[in-house]
Fold this protein.
Amino acid sequence: MIRHPAAAAPEPHLIDRLIGLAKRVLIVALLLLTALYAADSMRVWLRQAGASGGDVLGAVTFYLAVRLKSGKTEIYYDQPQTEICVRALFPHDGYRPCWYAGRERVRAG
């Protein structure tokens, strides 16, 4: 049987093309996330090194809640707690971001 030279390489299957596309999308997403974290870290570092280094940290007030034996929850509004947080998108230097720390105003103790 004689093969035509132009038909030597069969076209890849659709699933192979989709897997290749998914790999490229995943690589691009990881690179963008890495660049975003690096830019966020640089912003925090520059703000800490600047003259107004204190503006990189914030404080969030929250209240403790305890579940009682009766099944009810008691919230201690008379004892507010404060958590130091960082004003950034990602956690830095052991501090949670303020946007995330402020989501829970009442925390189980």
User: Anything to note?
Assistant: The first helix runs from residue 14 to 49. The chain is about 35% helix and 25% strand. The helical segments are 14-49, 98-101.
